[in-house]
Amino acid sequence: MKNIKVGQREFGKDKLFLIAGPCVIEKESIMMETAEKLKKIAERLDLPFIFKSSYVKDNRSSLEYYHGPGLEEGLKMLEKVKNAFDVPVISDVHQEAEVNAAAEVLDVIQIPAYLCMQTSLVSAAAKTGKAINVKHGQFLAPENMIKPVQKIEHFGNQNIMVTERGYTFGYNDLIVDPRSFYELQQTGYPVVFDITHCIRRYGIPSSDPNGGTRQYLGPIARAGVAAGIDGIFIEAHPDCTNALCDAASQYPLDQLEEFLKPLIEIHHIEKKNRTEI
């Protein structure tokens, strides 16, 4: 598996790495508090860390729901986090027109799951030379994720990670198939497991306590690490109940450190005993 570079840091070889932050950019005090605490957690646990928050959440199910501050204000906030805490930052891009501005701030450009097969968007992101996190669409067989990866490689960019976030399972539900981790590993790039999006209950407002099945986060995270993933993607918030997006599925920030400890232990065991089949 290739190591990838995010700024001056390497991700993917030996240590489990962490992508974490609020689902969408909220007021400055929340962003700064979360970034500071996440960095301290990552340092104590010796986890390479990327701060994540979306400047626009473009797939909200209602126009009435909070979508984020937008490209310009959102990037200013991410730049402030980046400079204040010396951490790399990642956010989604949804349109080709956003990519160049986003690349001026972001260390990792994220391609949303719904858009992973959009050639113009993936190509524009690849051309920036920035690291790319391409999320596995819930409609796509995992072995077909090699296609967007090859589109990125076509432009000479090999700083790629691929993220699993569950499959559509009937109506308004997602399920994680462990076979996907093996298939994504065949791309040769670090594999990330987005555990908080795969426990969302679609069709239920995220502010409703029934809008997420947070009780499953421990079991599915441990299963994913045991199956050989390289990074954990987890949306975390200091006040989940009042989060402006995905309130029912984000993880409480004050509980995150204890949640991560067994994952690190499992990762050490898995890496030591990994065999090729």
From TrEMBL:
SUPFAM superfamilies: Aldolase (SSF51569). It comes from the Bacteria. Its EC number is 2.5.1.55. It is found in: Cytoplasm. Pathway: Bacterial outer membrane biogenesis; lipopolysaccharide biosynthesis; Carbohydrate biosynthesis; 3-deoxy-D-manno-octulosonate biosynthesis; 3-deoxy-D-manno-octulosonate from D-ribulose 5-phosphate: step 2/3. Pfam families: DAHP_synth_1. This is 3-deoxy-8-phosphooctulonate synthase.
